[in-house]
Amino acid sequence: MVIDALRHIPSRGEILFRGDARLTPYNHDTMLTGDPDALVRPRDIQECREILAYCHAHRLPVTFCAGHTAMTGSSVAQSGLLLSIEHLTGIRDIGLHNGRPQATAAPGVFLGDFQRAVASEGFFYPPSPTSRNEAMLGATIATNATGDNTYKYGTTRRYVRAMRVIMADGTQRLLERPADQQISELKNTAGYFLLGTPIDHFIGSEGTLGLIVEVTVDLLPQPQPHFGLLIFCPSNDVALSIIGEAHRDAAVSPSALEYIDQAALQIMATHPTFPSPPAAAQAAVLCYQEYAEEMRDPFMEAWFALLERAAPEMHALLDATIVAEHPADEERLRTWRHHIPAHVNEIGHRLEGDDGGKVGSDWWVPIGQMPAMMAYMYHLSDAIHVPYLAFGHLGNGHPHVNYLARNAKERQMAIQAVDDCCRKAVALGGGVAGEHGLGKLKRDLLAIQHPTPVIDTMRALKQQYDPHWILGRGNILVPPE
Ligand SMILES: Cc1cc2nc3c(=O)[nH]c(=O)nc-3n(C[C@H](O)[C@H](O)[C@H](O)COP(=O)(O)OP(=O)(O)OC[C@H]3O[C@@H](n4cnc5c(N)ncnc54)[C@H](O)[C@@H]3O)c2cc1C
């Protein structure tokens, strides 16, 4: 019956049905494989409206997908229609609006292309997930993506000024942020953001409330010149204490403060262009420092003074610090950093053959709780004897801990470890998801963070926007029977 209804979808492009090999690349994101009945790739807003109105009338589930890099199964459809935004491309406008630098674009532009386009006009769009060359702009808003520079520049939410959305019934709405609205800086992607205006409901809604078809974002002037430092450390503990110190030390002002533990450094070192790390290097810190022209040398000195102070045993490793000052060097640093999650995902997929695989965490804590949380996490993770690594946005209290389970038993233990860490993070004032959202695979974590009345409010919000629960079925909330 679903297939019969899908055959009459008002799409002007070719509809691909289950069994068509061309559907295969659309069937999975980073973590989950799905089985949609059909795929459409609309080319304009009107087509999107007609498709959604038809699905609403026929109660057909619709899942939106963009670059398929989600870590939670959120862009995967278990059945029904998959709607790819890949043809909704184009940057319409980059410039000053009421004295404010802004850009308006379609959602299917790759984030990296968007950033390069605004840079060529002299502007800067900060949100920078390491996946920026594979992730699409609209999806980064639907996930409230963050990146290393969130430490200085905040989350995607800070920049979204307006968006055009197609509601579940095919109607169109323009959502605009009031000029004077305070914007939450919380790195929290566990369910709907309930405190703001409707535009905030959509940011991080993981394709469950409506289809984003156009966005207007605030831009910044081009950042000051900056250098990157990849600092090799003799132990995880030293790397952690450098991050704490850099956070407190007023003499430095990093825009990014990233942790790479011993196991993560080993993965980073497998990138073909990575130089052999010194033998004593057992962990690393990656940071970026912006500076006004005359401040380059003082900042460099302040960083090295901080490193010498942080641990006497650092001394032998200081000369090995990799300093990136030119765009090509910085691109290499970013490539190596991206290699960690990308390569871990590959290893995880190989382990799935033995019923193991990657089990990843996305919890976060306020930075002041970082030492307590990391001590808890390492103690717990060492005890289960499942290989794991920790890396990421420690400056924001938000590392990713990736367990590489070799079989089903280890997988269960890793899932339990992530659960336990999420409970601890919430007890310390943090949350269960800092940037990946919940999707289908992590939605059970919602109840660790939020009491039932809050989840009921989220369900009511979903019901209000999408009365038949056709959008992004299974993401964030369990649909009603
Ligand atoms: C190696 C690797 C590194 C990563 N690093 C980071 C990182 O540093 N920071 C970070 O935040 N994330 C990171 N991610 C996760 C992922 O890249 C982000 O969540 C990204 O925003 C998803 O973009 P996408 O285009 O791949 O979207 P998809 O995976 O296709 O979709 C993601 C979600 O957005 C919804 N969606 C897509 N388009 C629309 C639309 N137009 N309207 C409404 N909903 C829509 C989908 O339904 C789905 O729920 C990483 C992933 C990988 C694989």
Would you write up a description of this structure?
It is built from 15 helices and 18 strands. The protein is α+β, with helices and mostly antiparallel strands. It is globular. The structure holds flavin-adenine dinucleotide. Flavin-adenine dinucleotide (FAD) binds next to strand 3, helix 4, strand 10 and helix 11.
Question: How would you summarize what this structure contains?
Answer:
The protein has 481 residues and is α+β, with helices and mostly antiparallel strands. The chain has 15 helices and 18 strands.
Q: In terms of per-residue confidence, which ranges show pLDDT below 50 for 5 or more consecutive residues? A: none
- Helical/strand content category: alpha+beta
- Main sheet, how many strands, which sense, barrel? 7 strands, antiparallel
Helix content: 25-40%
CA gyration radius, whole angstroms? 22 Å
Q: Report mean pLDDT, rounded to a whole number.
A: 95
Q: What count of helical segments does DSSP give? A: 15
Distance between the termini: 18 Å
**Percent of residues in β-strands:** 15-25%
CATH-defined architecture of the largest domain: 2-Layer Sandwich
Strand order of the largest sheet: 15-12-14-13-17-18-16
Number of domains: 4
Total number of beta strands:
18
CATH topology of the largest domain: Uridine Diphospho-n-acetylenolpyruvylglucosamine Reductase, domain 3
What is the name of the CATH class of the largest domain? Alpha Beta
Q: Indicate the multimeric state.
A: single chain
Chemical compounds bound to the protein: flavin-adenine dinucleotide
The gross shape turns out to be globular
